[in-house]
């Protein structure tokens, strides 16, 4: 009889395991020391990094729970009223446990989640490497202060090795976990690094499991890589020594003026990206006027590219023409009146004022100079 009861219990246990939710998630939370009524939030972040709450739970008797569904494992953040910080988790369908540390939220424990374990291991190993880098920086700072050349050289070599190891760690970890949804979060974070190695990131993305590429995050990464490629191409096209990209656009009178038309008239040509609404541009204009008046007869030409037409600007053309007159801009002016238009993108212009100085063959010889620096550079060519 006991054996029958045992097997009956075992059968019920196995059935219960089989019925564990696979198409929805359950987070069983513990929040020791957290008062009743405190709210716990489960949030995602938008493209600007702002949190968007997706679910809310209320702590009762130091417990709370979340229930819901995700299409695939994704990065979410847990926050709780009265507790500083936020806890990143990879949320996936199934049952998981969350034990809140009400002093330091980042010390909370989130368990029984395959994708999160990959994410957690990555952060743990990265923290260890960062600690070694911080120590190496401290040692180098001390040896530099003591002016110990031999030790300085050794400390600098150690720091360089650690930094190279950190850089390779990101790539190797992504490569070895190319089938984990957590990798999407890690790969996405690499898109924002200063020393981004584009070709490596593309290779890592291409080697991802196809299921990962089909997700919203996977498609976002692909679109970001396409944008980065265009930016890289624009930077190469407008590097010093490169031939400036050709363009043409309407003048205030409605005629079409091409860059080549202006180049043919002078020895040195400035392409000046500006706008009527741009305060720094308008403040720089008197300096450009002074330089133009000083060097125009010696061969200086300027073509202004107006970036008016931003959202909320009531009459872009009127504002553009008025600013030309008020600021006494007597050189060539063109504008599509479409804000940061295709010409700005062609030159990788993301902020203004932005200037490019070309020689008589149309090659870029200098860029993004202002004030006295601009005058001195023009003087080098024309005095």
Q: What is the architecture of the largest domain at the second tier of CATH?
A: 3-Layer(aba) Sandwich
- The CATH superfamily of the largest domain is known as Glutaredoxin
What are the segments in which pLDDT stays under 50 over at least 5 consecutive residues? 1-21
**What is the average of the pLDDT values?**
89
CATH T-level fold name of the largest domain: Glutaredoxin
Protein name: Redoxin domain-containing protein
Subcellular location: Cell envelope
InterPro entries: AhpC/TSA, DUF4369, Thioredoxin-like_sf, Thioredoxin_CS, Thioredoxin_domain, Thioredoxin_ResA/DsbE_sf
Main location: other
Keywords:
383 residues, alpha+beta, Immunoglobulin-like, Glutaredoxin, 3 domains, five-stranded mixed sheet, four-stranded mixed sheet, 12 helices, 22% strand, disordered N terminus
Topology:
Layout: H1 2-18, E1 25-30, E2 39-45, E3 51-58, E4 63-68, E5 74-80, E6 83-91, E7 94-99, E8 109-111, H2 114-145, H3 149-176, H4 182-190, H5 198-206, H6 210-213, H7 216-237, E9 248-250, E10 256-258, H8 259-263, E11 268-274, H9 279-295, E12 300-306, H10 316-326, E13 332-334, H11 342-346, E14 354-358, E15 364-367, H12 371-382
Parallel strand pairs: 1-7, 11-12, 12-13
Antiparallel strand pairs: 1-4, 2-3, 2-5, 5-6, 7-8, 9-10, 11-14, 14-15
Helix pairs in contact: 2-3, 2-4, 5-7, 9-12
């Amino acid at each position: 009889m006991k054996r029958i009861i045992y097997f009956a219990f075992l059968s019920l246990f196995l059935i219960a395991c089989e019925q564990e939710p696979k198409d929805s998630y359950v987070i069983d939370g513990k929040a020791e020391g957290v008062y009743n009524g405190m709210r716990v939030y489960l949030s995602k972040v938008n493209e600007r990094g702002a949190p968007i709450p997706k679910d809310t739970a209320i702590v009762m008797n130091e417990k709370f729970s979340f229930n819901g569904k995700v299409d695939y494992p994704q990065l979410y953040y847990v926050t709780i009223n009265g507790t500083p910080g936020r806890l990143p988790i990879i949320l996936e369908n199934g049952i998981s446990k969350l034990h809140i540390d009400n002093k330091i939220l980042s010390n909370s424990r989130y368990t029984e989640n395959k994708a999160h374990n990959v994410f957690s291991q990555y952060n743990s190993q990265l923290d260890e490497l960062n600690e070694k880098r911080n120590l190496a920086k401290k040692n180098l700072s001390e040896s530099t202060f003591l002016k110990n050349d031999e030790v300085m050289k050794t400390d600098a070599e150690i720091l360089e090795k650690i930094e190279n190891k950190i850089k390779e760690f990101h790539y190797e970890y992504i490569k070895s976990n190319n089938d984990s949804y957590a990798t999407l979060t890690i790969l996405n974070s690499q898109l924002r690094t200063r020393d981004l190695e584009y070709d490596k990131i593309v290779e890592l993305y291409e080697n991802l499991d196809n299921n990962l590429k089909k997700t919203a995050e996977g498609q976002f990464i692909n679109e970001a890589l396409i944008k980065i490629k265009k930016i890289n191409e624009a930077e190469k096209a407008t590097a010093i020594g490169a031939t400036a990209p050709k363009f043409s656009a309407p003048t205030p009178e409605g005629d079409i003026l091409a860059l080549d038309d202006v180049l043919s008239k002078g020895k040195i040509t400035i392409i000046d990206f500006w706008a009527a609404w741009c305060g720094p541009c308008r403040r720089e204009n008197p300096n450009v006027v002074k330089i133009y008046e000083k060097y125009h007869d010696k061969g200086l030409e300027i073509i202004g590219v107006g970036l008016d037409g931003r959202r909320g600007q009531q009459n872009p053309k009127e504002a553009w023409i008025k600013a030309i007159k008020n600021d006494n801009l007597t050189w060539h002016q063109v504008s599509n009146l479409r804000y940061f238009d295709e010409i700005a993108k062609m030159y990788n212009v993301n902020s203004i004022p932005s200037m490019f100085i070309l020689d008589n063959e149309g090659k870029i010889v200098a860029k993004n100079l202002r004030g006295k620096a601009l005058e001195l550079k023009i003087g080098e060519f024309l005095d």
